[in-house]
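JOB MANIFEST
job_type = single_chain_structure
chain_count = 1
residues = 116
[input]
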Amino acid sequence: MRKLLLIIISFIPVSGVLAANFTLPPGNPITEVTISDFLGNTANFLIAIGVVAAVITIVIAGIMYFGSGISPAAATKAKSLFKSALIGTLIILGVGVIINTISAIIGSGSGGAGFF
């Protein structure tokens, strides 16, 4: 433990020298609009992935339901899967509406506007 503390203390003067000589590269600064656009685009991407996964799950539930034949257990499982996928889809779309509403109220950047 003492060796670790000694190593950490020995790097403190070196880090100060390195920090004093460090300059940022030229380029565009990160602003609130840039962060808002990034978060909005990320949210839109995740919502799109969620909707695709929900549609695939609904299709699988439909195939399971039609393939269940006379088995009531398989039909019940397919109905349960369909219900879960439908609830998940509504939650995902609800989150999209909330994100777009907050983005419109804040009004900075595009912030997720444009998904719907």
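[summary]
Residues 36-108 form one domain.
Helices lie at 2-20, 32-67, 72-106.
exit_status = 0
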